[in-house]
Amino acid sequence: MSLAPRAVLVHRRTEYEELLARHGTHGQAAFFLAARGRSADEVRERHERAHRALAAVAGSVPLTWRQTRVERADLDRFLFGPEDVVVVVGQDGLVANTAKYLTGQPVVGIDADPGRNPGVLVRHRPADARRLLPHAAGAGAPADELTMVAATTDDGQRLLALNEVYVGPPGHQTARYVLGTEDPAGAAGPSETQASSGVLAGTGTGATGWLRSLWQQSSSTLGLPAPTEPRLAWFVREAWPSPATGTRRVEGLLGPREGLRLTVESDRLVAFGDGVESDALELTWGQSVRLTVADTRLRLVG
Predict the structure, then answer these.
(1) By the 8 A CB rule, do 87 and 56 touch?
(2) What is the pLDDT of residue 141?
(3) SS (H, E, C) the chain
(4) What is the pLDDT of residues 212-256, one digit of tens each?
(5) pLDDT in tens, 40-67
(6) Each residue of 71-102: b (16+ CB within 10 Å) or e?
(7) Using CA atoms, how far apart are residues 75 and 62, in angstroms rounded to an integer?
């Protein structure tokens, strides 16, 4: 007997909740904000809108379904099941934070505060949930299959991201490494020893954010991928020319099964996805990491 679908409502603590956790009471939080020219009423209003949105979505879950909630900070400890319909209530970035923990479950993005988010990934309003959830649980429900990026180390560690993976120093030091590409058969292409602020490889979804800023800053002529294209774009940040390091290979595109390989020549580098530094791969001298189009895709409904 198959299990009924489970609605997993993903949310994050509001700014107001974080202020209360730090200052203890509304009055103390209001004093702290007033001293900096901000209003606690505005922050609390956004908090209340977010909670109204979450309550509206929870009330739209079919009565025959199971449901649960998970806060962003607990995503790495939450076990998603194959029968789950994941409902992200919040900002676009919360969808990206959730995507790396999924294995093909449908995702419905609900904008908790319309007008403050671009709405690239949280495309729907809370009132849409009643219609969307049964639709998302249906077999073969139409969804955008968004490309993800994978980082795999030579000792078997793996990281997924929806927007981009950054490889570089954990602080403001210089990253030193050897960078090279690999063709679909795994054959190595030309390589170059570099010193830079790090390397970014991202998807078409990421091309609306950090990746695009690098593309614009470098006046690149690369054609950035679309969100559903199985391609990645990569850029080297602030490559430094010296007698021992080059700047010839600072951007490129990766197709299916192609790879970008970095071999570390620093004491410590990190690789993390979608800006979540707390969930990073640690890389040490001589270790390699390979960036590729991921086998997993994000199924975004609507």
Answers:
(1) no
(2) 76
(3) CCCCCEEEEEECCCHHHHHHHHHCCHHHHHHHHHCCCCCHHHHHHHHHHHHHHHHHHHHHCCCCCEEEEEEHHHHHHCCCCCCEEEEEEECHHHHHHHHCCCCCCEEEEEECCCCCCCCCCCCECHHHHHHHHHHHHCCCCCEEEEEEEEEEECCCCEEEECCEEEEECCCCCCEEEEEEEECCCCCEEEEEEEEECCEEEECCCHHHCHHHHHHHHCCCCCCCCCCCCCCEEEEECCCCCCCCCCCCCCEEEECCCCEEEEEECCCEEEEEECCCCCCCEEEECCCEEEEEEEEEEEEEEC
(4) 999 999 999 999 999 999 999 999 999 999 999 999 999 999 999
(5) 888 899 999 999 999 999 999 999 999 9
(6) ebeebeeeebeeebbbbbbbbbbbbbbbbbbb
(7) 24
